[in-house]
Batch of 2 targets.
Target 1
Amino acid sequence: MNPMTFAETLTGALVMAPMTKGSNLPYRRLCVELGARVTMSEMTVARRLKQKRKGEFALIRRAPDEPFFGVQLAGTNPEEMAWSAGLVESRGADWVDINFGCPIDHFTRKGLGASIGRQPNRIRRLVEAMKRGVTRVPVTAKIRLGWNDDDRNFLDQAKAAADGGADAITVHGRTRNARYRLAADWDAIGQVVRAVTVPVVGNGDVLFPHEIGEARARSGCVGVMSARGVLIKPWLFREATEGYLDLDGEAREAIYRRYVALALEHWGDDEHGRARVREFLRWHVGFWCRYARRRDDGSWPTMQQREDTPVLRSRLEALLARADDAALDFVTDALLAGESLDPGRAPAMHEAARDTDLEAEG
Ligand SMILES: Cc1cc2nc3c(=O)[nH]c(=O)nc-3n(C[C@H](O)[C@H](O)[C@H](O)COP(=O)(O)O)c2cc1C
């Protein structure tokens, strides 16, 4: 694949973000069925591949129906990263991405993820090494704006990645310390676009289709990546081409059921497989319940804030909007059992759960 073709692939694309747990293979397949054409694996630790860990090899597996699949690698050692890049290429990845954004202490303390961004030279060396490790596929870098507000070194990071030979750069428009507290800074993403000659994919806060065009217009990025948006509504990919879809509870239930079918196909419809499916399904249901449709006054909910009074048109939609454990378990078990989601059989919501829910959302 030459870089020109890769740039074309990214141009206008809504890219499915790399997400630990969220970008599991059956969820990626669901997104492909709903229109995704560029997908990415969960973060995969290069050292664990080197150690031949089965769980890590499962993460780099490509689904046969994925049109353009990237594997994201995390690591600090250039040799290990180069070797892993070659490995994932030989296993069918269409491109290899490097994680320079993971904020989690467990990883940053070991010098992985966002901590690498503090020393842009290390970004350059890792990209260079990985470029040497592959024969055909593009290598990309996913960065943040910096470590914190006092250290917004995103231009240095982006230039280092480009100098190292990165074929594209993804910018998540927040610093490591900001986590999700602040809105993504699309103007900063625009600065990266103007500072490098390689294609830039912007990332942060995209939940509705009109936001994709706005983000591109504001920043000039070639493509837009979404993480939480596609966890909350996997049909965002269809919306990216068709415009806003006002799906009712039944239509959403059908999509969730399709995930169950794909997950059972992947993990197996036996006791062990169903336990895995339940674990993932319960996790996904925790995101699906955050869906809110366009408000009646025509304005749009945002990802940063939970809707106080979401517009609900049926008892099913009211059930799907509940975020208390009892409801999430009920929805999960009914979907897994193939039973209809009957709001009449749902457990009552305790006042305590109501309060916890509000506190948790802060
Ligand atoms: C559940 C979850 C898991 C994530 N795992 C990864 C990961 O493995 N690698 C990575 O680069 N970013 C990861 N991220 C960050 C996203 O890729 C993305 O950069 C961030 O969520 C901002 O995009 P959003 O505003 O669309 O959610 C994760 C995000 C979420 C919500």
Note: The chain has two domains: 3-242, 249-361.
Target 2
Amino acid sequence: MTEHARIFLVGFSGTGKSAVGRRVAALLGWAFADADELIVERAAKPVEQIFADAGEDGFRALEREAMASLAARTRVVVSTGGGAMVQDEVRSRMLDAGLVVALDARPESVYARLTSLTLGEGAESAEVMVRPLLDAASGDPLERIESLKRERQWAYALAHWTVPTDGLSVEQAAHEVVRAWARFGAARAWDGDPAVAATVTVESGAYPVFVGWGGLEQDLGRRLAETGFAGRAYVISDSNVTHPYGRAVQRSLHKAGIEMGLFTVEAGEKSKSLATATAIYEWLAERRVERADAIVAVGGGVVGDLAGFVAATFLRGITLVQVPTSLTAMVDSSIGGKTAVDLPVAKNLVGAFHHPSFVFTDVSALATLPARALTEGWAEALKHGLALDAGLLDSYESSAEALLALDPEITTEVIARNAAVKARVVTEDERETSGHRMLLNYGHTIGHGLEAAAGYERYLHGEAVAIGMTGAARLGVLRGVTPPELAERQAALLDRFGLPSSYAGVAPEAVLEAMTHDKKAAAGALRWVLLEAAGRAAVHRDVPSADVERIVRELAE
Ligand SMILES: NC(=O)c1ccc[n+]([C@@H]2O[C@H](COP(=O)([O-])OP(=O)(O)OC[C@H]3O[C@@H](n4cnc5c(N)ncnc54)[C@H](O)[C@@H]3O)[C@@H](O)[C@H]2O)c1
Ligand SMILES: [Zn+2]
């Protein structure tokens, strides 16, 4: 994958290639290069002068040379001149060497941007061909933009991906490009090192989620070193995961020249406690851990939440890297910055928001995950498709067998897409204030009630969520919100992935009682996340308690 780690932004002038390119590079942690700037630098004269001295042919020759050297670099975002894609040699070089993304815009937007440079200060300042056209005395500039754009459209259409930028800010356009990279990168990642599947943008900055099949030992240490990290790393893992994954991470850090230590906690939810956190604090203090050091959490959600909580609180916060090894952790808990420990009275009662520097997911670790934990994890993954991503929902239906067999390529793609869904929601609503993150609670109202009523013994979280989604879908159908066919699609999927859709051994009254105690209950009235269409959920407040009672009773076997 690394040999393809390049993005070329092509497209007409005034589509924001430089400004967007700079932002994409920042989001991915790559370098940025502006092809026109390189040409100017090498020729040691401005573009207009190159044209005046050597004509367009002279400029194109310089452009070919510049592109050849840029295409030899890796982890770079290159913004190109508006004419680059039209040159056969340059075009095929870019298409071979990386992902080519065309930024498109309507001629009116191009005109507006070229005359006001709204999309980034000084964007495309070295752009050739169009500015002279705008300056020319004759004809209507808008018409000239239209005709030149039409002339070049065939070449832009050969890009791997096109992002229409009308109405988008630089930030939004950059995210679209990163998303395109995620799709392209993830699709090839299974036979190479993990690629960026998503970028989470939060108040404290942006961080990437790498997803690949394999690569833990080869790449993790290098990735950490590449962030400029110069401290020591403290790996926290559990008794099921230390061998082989904690050790692989250690070797990877060692290879990258990073000093490290390893702390192994007992596997299981019981370790998500203040007592274990204290033991880790003491261990870190003995080693004189400093703020420049990092905690690397290698394991499922228990290790991620616990080690994350320690990283959030020790010395008021040190660097954290999440290396999820369970399906739940890969698609859910490692992304989003929520860390916590349990108190005897309730789970996750003490916690903090603390985002990692990056998330590194080696999907191949799922091969050793116990079957029940794997099945449980699919519940949250299916939820992402049902509530937020119709395309993902289609993938579950078309690829269920391959996913259940952990086919490397398809599973990696699907986990990458799940990471992207979670990352998008967290980016839109970091602290659960706008209500968007609430959509991730689809199936959780009944699910949490059932878990609590059953004393957290009988049902794993994902199993309870599967039953909760069944309840929410039936409630949605009853209220006329959820199309019945969609509820049937969901039921068929849960069944195919081996998830339950009804409960036993718990009294419906106890479930109802526990539901009203759940922290997600807003001021007496429960808010319900209901499916309105495939991949589209919304919060509903007007659900009568009689309907809820009826559904919760129906779900009992
Ligand atoms: N922070 C969040 O946003 C968030 C979201 C969801 C869940 N959670 C938390 O996550 C926890 C549940 O996560 P979980 O289901 O991963 O539990 P877990 O960490 O206990 O992992 C499940 C089991 O699988 C083992 N395991 C993990 N990876 C393995 C691998 N690759 N091979 C073999 N064994 C492996 C673990 O040792 C454990 O026994 C809960 O505490 C929950 O509260 C947090
Ligand atoms: Zn959940």
Note: Residues 111 and 142 are 6 Å apart (CA to CA).
